[in-house]
Amino acid sequence: MRSDDAPDPNADRPWSEMDLFDLANCVRLKQPAEEIADFLCRPVSEVCDKIAALERSGVMDRRVAEAAAGAED
Question: For the chain, how many structural domains are there in total?
Answer without folding.
Answer: 1
